[in-house]
Amino acid sequence: MTATDSPAVAGAIETTDKVLSHLHPEGSFQVEDHPVPSGREEIWRFTPMRRLRDLHKEAPFGASIDVEVGAPEGVQTERVEITDKTATIAGYQPTDRITARAWDAVSYIDRVVLPSDVVLDEPVVITATGNGVGEQAAAARLQIVAQKFSRGTVVLDFKGSAVLADAIEIVVEDGAHLTVVTLDDWADDALHHSAQHATVGRDATFRHITVTFGGDLVRANTSVSYAGPGGEAELLGVYFADAGQHIEHRLFVDHDAPKTKSNVDYKGALQGKDAHTVWIGDILIRKVAEGIETYEANRNLVLTDGCRADSVPNLEIETGDIEGAGHASTTGRFDDEQLFYLQARGIPAEEARRLVVRGFFADIIRKIGIKDIEEKLIAAVEEELARSNA
Length: 390
Hints:
Belongs to the iron-sulfur cluster assembly SufBD family. Residues 135-360 form the SUF system FeS cluster assembly SufBD core domain. It is a single chain. With 390 residues, the protein is mainly β. The chain folds into two domains: 2-333, no CATH class; 334-390, no CATH class. Helix content is 13%, strand content 45%. The protein is built from four helices and 22 strands. It has helices spanning 97-105, 336-343, 349-365, 371-388, and strands at residues 2-4, 13-15, 18-20, 61-63, 65-70, 76-81, 108-114, 124-131, 137-146, 151-161, 163-172, 177-186, 191-200, 205-212, 217-226, 232-241, 246-255, 261-270, 276-285, 293-302, 308-317, 324-332. The chain has a ten-stranded mixed sheet, covered by helices on one side. Strands 4, 6, 7, 9, 11, 13, 15, 17, 19 and 21 form a ten-stranded mixed sheet that branches. The protein is globular. 45% of the residues are buried.
């Protein structure tokens, strides 16, 4: 077992209002501003470039995915034609070549708006279904806006087979409370590269929950910034990698306003030969971000031999006037004491191992708050465990 639990500091150089960091290239809408990566760059060094199917080069876009939106009464949904490629609602600009190429290739945006003061009793469910892997990739853009003092949940359910690159912009206006749940339940041959950015307003609360079980290669970049003091962001994730599967999550929280909070908590399990997970967490605390609180954690459970879990937490701190900042990262096998405790009470070894894995994921899954999805995920964990009789 290896673990770290200390506020280590990575270097950042601030000049006026820009922060230069090796972890975060400068954003641009222009594809030519993003050179073709070689795989040696910091943001690409863990990604198997040969399995990207040339998305990072010149692979053609042109395929489509089926999108179905189920929204409760009062939610506004529309498909908007793009007339200005540089327009963004969340202040986001693509920071990698794949996202820039997808951004440029899309001709319309799917938009979901929770009007001011609305309180949803049921979630908005957006289902994206791939129709198969062909010679062309699919590109998509989505915008989610929770207007002032609204409260609700949006679920993004990805399934089927596809090569997809998407960009998702999220705005949580002042006083709003928004939960976004992303389910990557792809077929085994799918490739999904996703960039998701949220801007959190004054005294607003944003919860982002990522669940990744399917796909051949899934690479998700999730970032958060703040539009005023008092905003809170909670980024949670669970993932389960099987033999040969590559799952990569890259998190970036930019504390660019005072009195803001963030909490990042991701848990993953791996089984099978060449199963590979990557978790990169980074918290940037700017000079103006006085009085902030932040913590990030990643824990990985290795179930079989032949797996690899890379976990790299980072803190970039430009002010000492903060309430608290820290991180933790662990990677290891089953806790022998837990197994012994269960077996000593008559529980067979195989069932004891299943109980440990279920308990490992349960605290995050229960935070989704949607019973049907929670039950579906617990069943998916059971199915994953059955593949190896873990």
